[in-house]
Amino acid sequence: MKLPVAIIGGGPVGFAAAAQLLERGESFDLFEAGSEVGASVLEWGHVRMFSPWEYTMDESAVRLLSAHDWEAPHGGDIPTGRELIEKYLQPLADLPEIAPFVHLNSQVIAVGKKDLDKMKSRGREQAPFVVRYKQDGQIRQIEARAVIDASGTWKQPNPLGAGGAFAVGEAEAADRITYGIPDVYGKQRHRYAGKRVLVVGSGHSAINTLLDLNRLKEEVPTTEIMWLLRKKDVREAYGGGEADQLQARGALGTAIQSLVESGRVSVYTPAYIQEVSTKNNGLVVTGVWNGAPMRLDGIDEIITNTGSRPDAQFLREVRFQLDAAIECVPALAELIDPNIHSCGTVRPHGERELRQPEKDFYIVGMKSYGRAPTFLLATGYEQVRSVVAALAGDWEAAERVELRLPETGVCNVGGPLYAKKAETSCCGPITKKTASCCE
Fold first, then answer.
1. Torsions phi, psi of 48, nearest 5?
2. In three state form, how does the secondary structure of 199-260 look?
3. Of 30, 228, 324, 404, which sits most exposed with the smallest number of CB within 10 A?
């Protein structure tokens, strides 16, 4: 019997892989560590995405859903994370063609080759993969002919510490530190209302958190907002503004710029945290700000939006490679390295670039970007379309990769502070004929 393809991760990209496989008549098993579909997305379900529906749904998935009684959302509307799950991903997971092969509460703990450790080469390509997972307290395993790792990076947040490691005292203060995007204006407002809150990070997650804290401050004026960034200038966090082809993404930068200029948030940049301690029932953060010693006292809560990193522990017996700096798929490193550029577009890429030393093993989606923050769902959907085509033996389709992404309004060497606007940017929608300026 032909073995299935194992898909690790029950988020949008994982289910896109399932839809692609199903369309090609290929079998699969999908493993989601959470108790429900899109569990990681639901943790920030209150946040409105900056990509409209047309960029957040996979074409194969839409074709499958359209064959059933499914009401498609309007392509130009912008969903929240929860709406993405409830209106798209959950209906997809419930389809009779897919539901029997979805395993919830199933955390993959090891992937390898049957009866062969990582060092053994003879017969390796012919041996099936073995995927071991923990479900309801039981250890189980299946054999698979290929593995698509779409497990993302959300569950591996970066720490507060400036050097990429936990700051001194960070673990001890964990009960007052939140990693991710808490619902500060909704379900968790009681935790932050009237408190002195420090937000650490400079990406869209941090901006969303700050804007919601400001809404809370309008209703509870005693709420204090502090923003700590590692960037040289706060303007680097504003993005492309009106030049961004995703209006909601540009609007985030415009809104945070207005908030900073209003003086309603105290900004510390460039700042680097070295230690977190407790004094008089408040947190004390010490480190360096503008090259001088920094001490921030009386902090009630810290929200950490410093990005995330991939988990490779369960892949120890797989022959795979990650870039040494970004921890992304090596072929993508020069295209997405934030040390080089700030562009969110990437030249067309697919199975060839995602190929690993272990035949028929692929890392896709957010995890393929490692620590880089510029991933878009449309990128992941195109990745799995190409990968699945290759697994099905359709090499012509696998090689025919075209990735079209909206312009960020920012694309340059030297950081977005020095970026030119869209009329002189080379970061327009990417086609097979035009490589990104981020090469």
1. -85, 130
2. EECCCHHHHHHHHHHHHHHHHCCCCEEEEECCCCCHHHHCCCHHHCCCHHHHHHHHHHHHHH
3. 324
Buried b (16+ CB within 10 A) or exposed e, 50-75: bbbbebbbbebbbebbeeeebeebee
Kind of pairing between the strands at 196-200 and 224-228: parallel
Assess contact for 372 and 338: CB atoms under 8 A: yes
The type of residue at 363 is I
What are the angstrom distances between the C-alpha of 361 and each of 173, 180, 329? Answer: 39, 29, 12
3-state secondary structure of 35: coil
Question: In the chain, what percentage of residues exceed pLDDT 70?
Answer: 88
Query: Regarding beta strands 106-113 and 224-228, do their DSSP bridges make them parallel or antiparallel, or are they unpaired?
Result: unpaired
Report field, pTM of the whole predicted structure over 0.85: yes
**For residues 416 and 235, what is the distance between their CA atoms, to the nearest angstrom?**
8
pLDDT above 60: residue 144: yes
Span 368-394, pLDDT tens digits: 999 998 888 989 999 999 999 999 999
Question: Per-residue pLDDT tens for 324-362?
Answer: 999 999 999 988 887 775 555 567 789 999 999 999 999
Burial class (CB in 10 A: 0-12, 13-18, 19+), 12: buried
Backbone φ and ψ of 365, nearest 5°: 70, -155
CA distances from residue 435 to 348, 354, 402, 423 in whole angstroms, order as listed: 7, 17, 11, 18
Determine the Cα–Cα distance for residues 253 and 258; give it in Å rounded to an integer. 9
